């Protein structure tokens, strides 16, 4: 059998329910009768309803106290000792401990009169008992100096405390003093002036962020206008309060969030003053990733080691002249795993764009051992992980068509965070802020968090960290420092991000990284080229197809395991290369269902990235301008000497030459064309000569007869008296049948 409790609540008890204050006034047959103290309405609650509301978090019940009137007027609004200021809490505890000592005297049969409480033996007993409840008490100040210990009051004060404590039902809230209520309690500023101050406050609570001085000037105008009315009525004139009084009035009448909303706007106030995220948004590594871009507060020069030494003196002088103009702040694009707070990728760029974001995606989905080895890191970075959700913001490099297409190819969702809403992606914001205070602020050339942060520090002159050094420091920080320091964010509980990642990987797992073919297609570089017998070329690197996912195309594999792409198409094919790994490439052929996988045939470059390969080519091709000119002069001088040596040898031996001079070539040409016969050009049957279109057409038979040759070549002799002048009336194709031409 279930027992329904019938709670016995004393009459006069206060009930606080969801912001309402009710008082118990009686009972009825199945519950309680209550009265709302604000509206005066009477309500009836059943015992079941009272039990259900009692379990609510906003419910509170206060039993009536017979001596509640014994409290000081200021303490009447407090319900618990902890609500008092710290100084009054200590005072209440001290006086309650004294009352405990007086209670022990009363229990031993001593009447608590002023004379009895002043006796030395009774005061000693009170002090010993009070010291057990509070702290050791002193009898008098040694040497008349100041002490931090609490002193024993006289019998009159002890009796007063005992009576208050006893009359209030031993409520400690009745014991503290209200010294701050002494003196003149009347308002120094009249009510009418307070109303005018409310009107003047509107000048300060403006989006233009006006100052207190401007609001005070408006108050002076309002008071002046009001005094004109009082002059007519012969009343006392109003005085203008000070600017400090007006500022205090505004801050007391308006909440801090209200002032921020009025002056800065709702979005910015919500972004700055709203509570942070208190939910655990991911449990698996790669389940949710946040990315953001920030302009680093450090000046980076263009002058770099190695390149500066290779410049000529003239170029160095020119670069020194414009050095101040090329110093700038770089942009950091970073991605973290929400579940573990581990950094997954970081990219430095001069200008934000899709290229930097796609490079960040590549770093997330690849192994980062290369950074560990190059920059001498001691800890292991995060391995290649897959991505489920990517959360970004309004950055120009994050919200564009190219980035969306690439992100959708490697993840399930691309989530756009709202502007001025830090709660949408709070974790990456925290990482950026931490790196700003722990690393960037430590570097020379730091610019400060705002324009007025550093007043006597020249960031332009002190900026000596070049981009390579800056990226090395950031890599060391994100691999060795940040993952190994304690994190007190939501769900971290003081653990390090590295330990959290290991725990989650063991218990929840990790999303697999995209396969190489998918990664190259969505995140790689695309080049179009025609296939040849050697395969295809991208960045002057030869690739040969070795495998395909299309079963029908697999029949084209040669005996050596290579695929000739010319058998499938004669047009250009699309080649996708992973800039981080050049050994393999993905080739898509128009008309073929599956992609082809090609391998780099130059084995010397298989283990390099695209940047390293281009750096090697640049190093091979780089030559000092003076050395290049010297090499060209040496080569041309050697060729000239070799040519002279050959000519001398030919003249000495009388060897026929293998070439002709210009005069000899022209003579040979004239001799070659000397025996040519240019035949008579006859008219074309059915056609008219130029200039006689409207004239009569010649007779066809005469035209045919006129085509007979007037002379022939006999025995190879040419008739010099033959007239080869064409007919002035007709122009036709020459009849060269049977003639040598």
Automatic annotation (TrEMBL):
Superkingdom to which the source organism belongs: Bacteria
Single GO molecular function: nucleic acid binding
Transmembrane segments: none
Region (Disordered): 704-741
UniProt xrefs under InterPro entries: RNaseH-like_sf, RNaseH_sf
Gene3D superfamilies the record matches: Ribonuclease H-like superfamily/Ribonuclease H
Protein name (database record): Transposase
């Amino acid at each position: 059998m279930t027992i329904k409790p019938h709670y016995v609540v004393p009459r006069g008890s206060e009930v606080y329910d969801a912001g309402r204050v009710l008082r118990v006034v009686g009972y009825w047959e199945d519950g309680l009768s209550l009265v709302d103290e604000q509206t005066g309405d009477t309500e009836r609650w059943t015992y079941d309803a009272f039990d259900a509301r009692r379990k609510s978090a906003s419910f509170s019940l206060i039993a009536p106290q017979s001596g509640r009137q014994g409290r000081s007027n200021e303490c009447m609004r407090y319900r618990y000792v902890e609500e008092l200021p710290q100084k009054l809490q200590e005072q209440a505890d001290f006086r309650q401990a004294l009352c405990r000592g007086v209670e022990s005297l009363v229990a031993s049969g001593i009447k608590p009169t002023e004379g009895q409480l002043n006796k030395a033996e009774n005061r000693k007993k009170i002090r010993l008992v009070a010291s057990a409840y509070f702290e050791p008490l002193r009898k008098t100040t040694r040497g008349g100096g100041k002490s931090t210990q609490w002193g024993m009051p006289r019998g009159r004060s002890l009796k007063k405390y005992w009576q208050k404590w006893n009359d209030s039902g031993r409520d400690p809230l009745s014991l503290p003093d209200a010294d701050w209520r002494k003196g003149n309690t009347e308002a120094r500023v009249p009510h009418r002036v307070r109303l005018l101050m409310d009107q003047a406050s509107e000048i300060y609570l403006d989006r233009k962020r006006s100052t207190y001085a401007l609001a005070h000037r408006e108050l002076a105008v309002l008071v002046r206008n009001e005094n004109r009315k009082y002059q007519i009525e012969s009343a006392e004139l109003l005085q203008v309060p000070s600017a400090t009084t007006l500022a205090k009035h505004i801050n007391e009448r308006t909440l801090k969030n209200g002032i921020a909303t009025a002056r800065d706007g709702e979005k910015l106030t919500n972004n700055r003053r709203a509570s942070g995220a208190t939910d655990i948004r991911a449990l698996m590594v790669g389940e949710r990733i946040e990315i953001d871009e920030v302009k680093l507060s450090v000046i980076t020069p263009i002058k770099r080691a190695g390149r500066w030494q290779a410049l000529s003196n003239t170029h160095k002088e020119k670069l020194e002249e414009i050095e101040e103009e090329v110093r700038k702040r770089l942009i950091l694009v970073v991605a973290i795993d929400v579940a573990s707070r581990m950094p997954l990728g970081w990219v430095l760029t001069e200008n934000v764009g899709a290229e930097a974001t796609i490079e960040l995606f590549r770093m997330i989905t690849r192994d980062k051992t290369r950074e560990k080895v190059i920059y001498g890191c001691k800890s292991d970075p995060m391995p290649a992980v897959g991505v489920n959700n990517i959360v970004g913001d309004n950055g120009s490099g994050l919200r564009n068509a190219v980035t969306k297409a690439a992100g959708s190819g490697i993840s399930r969702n691309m989530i756009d965070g709202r502007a001025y809403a830090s709660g949408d992606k709070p974790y990456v914001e925290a990482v950026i802020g931490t790196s700003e205070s722990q690393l960037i602020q430590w570097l020379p050339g730091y610019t400060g968090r705002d324009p007025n942060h550093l007043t006597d520090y020249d960031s332009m002159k002190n900026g000596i960290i070049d981009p390579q050094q800056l990226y090395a420091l950031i890599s060391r920080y994100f691999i060795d420092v940040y993952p190994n320091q304690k994190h007190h964010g939501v769900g971290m509980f003081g653990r390090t991000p590295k330990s959290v990642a290991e725990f989650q990987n063991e218990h929840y797992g990790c999303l697999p990284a995209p396969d190489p073919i998918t990664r190259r297609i969505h995140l790689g570089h695309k080049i179009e080229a025609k296939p040849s017998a050697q395969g295809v070329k991208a960045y002057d690197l030869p690739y040969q197809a070795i495998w395909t996912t299309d079963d029908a195309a697999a029949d084209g594999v040669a005996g050596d395991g290579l695929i000739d792409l010319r058998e499938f198409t004669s047009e250009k094919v699309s080649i996708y290369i992973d800039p981080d790994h050049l050994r393999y490439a993905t080739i898509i052929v128009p008309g073929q269902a599956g992609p082809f996988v090609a391998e780099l045939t130059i084995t010397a470059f298989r283990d390099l990235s695209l940047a390293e390969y281009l750096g090697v080519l640049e190093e091979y091709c780089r030559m000092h301008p003076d050395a290049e000119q010297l090499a060209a002069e040496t080569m041309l001088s050697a060729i000239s000497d070799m040519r002279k040596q050959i000519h001398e040898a030919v003249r000495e031996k009388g060897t026929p030459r293998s070439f002709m001079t210009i005069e000899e070539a022209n003579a040979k040409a004239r001799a070659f064309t000397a025996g040519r016969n240019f035949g008579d050009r006859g008219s074309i049957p059915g056609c008219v000569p130029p200039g006689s279109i409207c004239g009569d057409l010649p007779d066809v038979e005469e035209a045919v007869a006129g085509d007979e040759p007037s002379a022939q070549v006999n025995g190879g002799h040419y008739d010099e008296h033959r007239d080869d002048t064409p007919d002035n009336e007709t122009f036709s194709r020459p009849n060269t049948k049977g003639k040598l031409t």
